[in-house]
Amino acid sequence: xxGEGLPTRKITINNEDLQRLESNVWxxxxxxxxxxxxxxxxxxxxxxxxxxxxxxPKKSYExxxxxxQILHWNAEFDDPSMIRNALSFHFFNMIxxxxxxxxxxxxxxNGYPHGVYxxxxxxDDTFFRRRNIGSQALIYAVNDKANFGLYDSETGELKESxxxxxxxxxxxxxxxTKLVKFVKRINNPANSSLKSYLAYRLDIYxxxxxxxxxxxxxxxxxxxxxxxxxxxxKTGKYRIxxxxxxxxxxxxxxxxxxxxDLVDVRGYNTLTKKVLSYKSHRQIYRKxxxxxxxxxxxxxTIEPIIADMYENLRPAIRDDFTRKWPLYAFxxxxxxxxxxxxxxxxxxxxELNNWVD
Length: 357
Fold this sequence. Notes:
Blueprint: E1 8-12, H1 15-22, E2 31-37, E3 40-49, E4 60-65, E5 69-74, H2 84-94, E6 102-109, E7 112-121, H3 125-130, E8 135-141, E9 166-170, H4 173-186, H5 192-201, H6 204-217, E10 227-232, E11 238-242, H7 270-275, H8 279-294, H9 299-319, H10 327-354
Parallel strand pairs: 1-6
Antiparallel strand pairs: 1-2, 2-3, 3-4, 4-5, 5-7, 6-7, 8-9, 8-10, 10-11
Helix pairs in contact: 6-8, 8-10, 9-10
């Protein structure tokens, strides 16, 4: 059994280290491994990654090697198509919202087939260097407390800290202080002073393009978590990057079918609500959505991308016995994507037609 044309990665890990990782799947502890890729074998570190997926029989991994190089290997266990993350990030890049590159790969584990994975580029210094983007600070939204609000969405009580839900990946002591100040400030009344502040601290146009991408792909989990914020070096403004888009295009993050109307066309979270409270921002957002419906978010544009991904992936999927879903489920998914796009287009267009400023 092989990856049928997919790039192959090989991991060698001793049993003691593997048992240590498996004894606590929620730990972020790394174990030493040998990583073989591109014809070379190197020392690396591996840990489990993900949220609820850590309890699954097929785990997802983070690999660190070399000069702080990082790879994310997603099992995409809940996604019968194996392409929802890849297609979503491809779509974001199409609309000029910088997003991680992806590639499907075949994994061998201690000499045995481990099946198809999605390799996802890490959002880090290398990510920004590749794109010639200046970044002076980077913050991950790691759980659903990262809603830009004052209150915990689960308890309804004031947050202990306005930094709840975030993790500084790059920056100084001031990085946390600045984000807390930003969250506190955007929770003030939507007056002209706040509008000026938003223009000063947030790349509003990029934020609205990201919002359109999340809304069109239908990522319900992408507003209160599963994104990264970075401070652009030249402007000092916050910019946003999507992350973890497995629950999209008609299925949720558990792989269950969901309606094409699951995500509100105006999106969610406190920052989104505050940005769209201004008529000029709503007009920009509506224009972005209108343009995407006319060009990028169409069956004509996206169906060939899906077909190409499927052509490259199907032989390996056919040979992968580690998957949750049967092959016929994989083969049925392209039609679900098409139906979702058609239905989502109609929903968004109807909202735009009836949107009164």
